[in-house]
Amino acid sequence: MNKFKQLALIGSTASGKTSLAIALAQQMNAYILSLDSLAVYKYIDIVSAKPTLKERADIEHFGIDVVYPNEAFDVTTFIKLYQEVYHKCLQNHKNLIIVGGTSFYLKMLLEGISDIPPISQETKEKAKTYLQNIQKTYQWLYQKDPTYMSNIAKTDRYRIEKALSIYLETHDTPSAYFSKFPTLPTITEALPIYQIIWDRESLRKRIALRTSLMIENGLIDEVCQLEKEYSRTPKCMKSIGIKETLAYLDGIYDKTRLIEKISTNTARLAKRQNTFNHSQFKDVIKGDIAQLESILLS
Fold first, then answer.
1. Angle at CA 134, nearest 5°, toward 130 and 138?
2. Which of 58, 151, 161, 266 is 20–30 Å from 118 (CA)?
3. How far apart are CA 199 and CA 45, in angstroms?
4. H helices within the chain, ranges in order?
């Protein structure tokens, strides 16, 4: 290999990324880095739809089974993981395919993470009071920093709280703060991005079929074991597929309703993923499975 190559393959849940990525990795002599915030957890296998050991075959995967369900994993951890995989690729003369549905992680690789200052307990308490009326707080912050806040949705509590905490702690607007401490991207060279597109109805059918197969393959038993070992406290136990199954175990749903709820919530997730992908990435090569196979595997 004369030059290291990498690309990203994104798309909503159930869009067929896994099989295409594996076929491409075989052709490209590449490792695969999973871009999935649920597949990082050990023992969360069925609900995360992570590729099986048989599917992975002779392609080495990273970003799968990284931490236990009660351990923390966030975008900062993912960036460190990418850096480790990148260096391993160079050492072993491998290319890299970054694939998955958690495109926020990809965005942070390309744009960098905004480090925020240490937030005092006093500021945290003050922010909690402000956030009791999130709409009013959003408008207040928008008046102070329209440039920064115009990129944040009025319902995005996480990012509103981040902007609020910065302002309350430093007395700088977020724009002023980040001009002093700019973000540094991890991936600095051009990265080809390919996105799998499905029409909404076809994707809904794929999601419904996959949900039924997950139930047949032991999803309920998997969630029972997770609850037994780790309780319902970890963040991952609030994930789609797990939270509905816990409600089923509580007697809130029967099995038919369980499948319906998982399918519906997964379809909503897919819609959010597609909206994010369309809005956050430029110069993306988009197509259905057949079109991208023709482009990538020819």
1. 95
2. 151
3. 27
4. 17-28, 53-56, 75-92, 103-111, 121-130, 134-144, 146-149, 157-170, 174-180, 200-216, 219-230, 242-249, 255-280, 289-296
* Cα–Cα distance, 272 to 23 (Å, whole number): 27
**Residue listed under structure tokens 């175990």:** 249
Neighbours of 188 (CB within 10 A): 9
- pLDDT one-digit tens code per residue, 169-216: 999 999 999 999 888 899 999 999 999 999 999 999 999 999 999 999
Q: What are phi and psi of 61, to 5 degrees?
A: -105, 145
Region of 61 (left: φ > 0; alpha: ψ -120 to 50; beta: rest) is beta
pLDDT band at residue 2, thresholds of 50, 70 and 90?
low
Name which of 184, 98, 134, 156 is nearest 275 in CA terms. Answer: 156
Q: What is the DSSP track for 252-275?
A: SS-HHHHHHHHHHHHHHHHHHHHH
Three-class secondary structure of residue 16 per DSSP = coil
Are 22 and 295 contacting, i.e. CB atoms less than 8 angstroms apart?
A: no
Beta bridge partners of 195: 10, 286
Question: What does the alpha-carbon distance between residue 102 and residue 13 come to, in Å, rounded to a whole number?
Answer: 9
DSSP-derived letter for residue 173 is: -
pLDDT confidence bin for 61, thresholds 50/70/90: very high
Torsion sign (Cα): 138, 143, 149, 153: positive
What is the b/e burial string over 172-186, where b = at least 16 CB atoms within 10 angstroms of the residue's CB?
bbbeebbeeeeeeeb
